[in-house]
Structures are given as structure tokens and as C-alpha cells.
Amino acid sequence: VRELFAAIIGPEAEFARELYLSWEEARAMQSGGMILGGHSHRHRPLATLDARELRADLATCRELLHGRLYPQHRWPFCYPYGKHRSFHRGAVNELARQGFACAFTTETGINAPGTGRYVIRRVDCKDALPARPAFMAAS
User: Fold this and answer.
1) Phi/psi at 120 (nearest 5 deg)?
2) Neighbour-count burial of 127, counting CB atoms closer than 10 A to its CB (0-12 exposed, 13-18 middle, 19+ buried)
3) DSSP class of 103
4) How far is residue 31's CA from residue 131's CA, in Å, rounded to a whole number?
């Protein structure tokens, strides 16, 4: 796969520099008022990791964030792959132990009172738009 990637797309390191944020760019985003959060270290579904792997992955993620970014009052988290089947109660507990303030899924829907702070749903912008009046509907 590496050879195919290099032949079709080019050098992986160069591609990564263009695609991903650098730590410097991330700190600039923080300076601009943005809050950054974790997304795991190895980007594996947390439900597939045993307790030791889970603890190590999330600890590495936390250490990199705290070591390379500016301090923040709270550190959120977003699950790799984001669906409820991609994480489990052990992951939620480990996120709390590691000091992450909350966690976002990619599940869409309303967060009713009592929704746990480690299972926050999203509202997609396209779903948040008001319905188009009938006179504007396509014919």
C-alpha cells in the first residue's frame, strides 16, 4: 500500500504536512479562541481495545495535548468513528479518569436533560435549518 500511495499521491510525509494540522497551527487556533480536544492517539475504535491498550492510548493522547498545546480550562474528546458501537462503558470511564471533560459522538439527535456528558450527540447544520416554505419547494 505504501508503494501504491507514493506512486499515486506522492510522499506520505508531504501529504500529511498538507492535510493535518501542525502543533503550531493548533496553538494558533487556541490563540484565536478555539478549544481543542482529544480524538485518541492511534485512531482505533475504543471498543476494540482491551483495558491496558485503552488506558495507554488515552494517556498518550492526553499527554500530547497537555504537553504541546496551551492550557485549557476543559479538554473535550471526540470518539474515533463516533458511533455508539465504537466505544463502551470502559472507554467512558477511562476518559473521565484521564480528565477529559466530555465526549462527543457522531450520532445525530437532541441531548435531552440527563444525557451523559460522555455521550453527547451532534446536530448537523443541515438538520438545524428551518423547513423551506411550500412556495420555495422545488416543483
Assistant:
1) -75, 130
2) exposed
3) E
4) 37
Decide: helix, strand or coil at residue 109: coil
Q: Are 121 and 109 in contact (CB under 8 A)?
A: yes
Q: Rg of the chain's alpha carbons, rounded to an integer?
A: 19
Which pLDDT tens digit goes with each residue over 43-72?
999 999 999 999 999 999 999 999 999 999
Joined together, the cell numbers standing for residue 12 give 506520505
CA 68 to chain centroid: 17
Cβ count near 95 (within 10 Å):
26
Assigned C-alpha cell, 113: 436533560
Cβ neighbours around 76 below 10 Å, total: 18
- Asked if 100 contacts 76 with a C-beta cutoff of 8 angstroms, the reply is yes
Phi, psi at residue 111, to the nearest 5°?
A: -100, 95
Question: pTM for this one?
Answer: 0.81
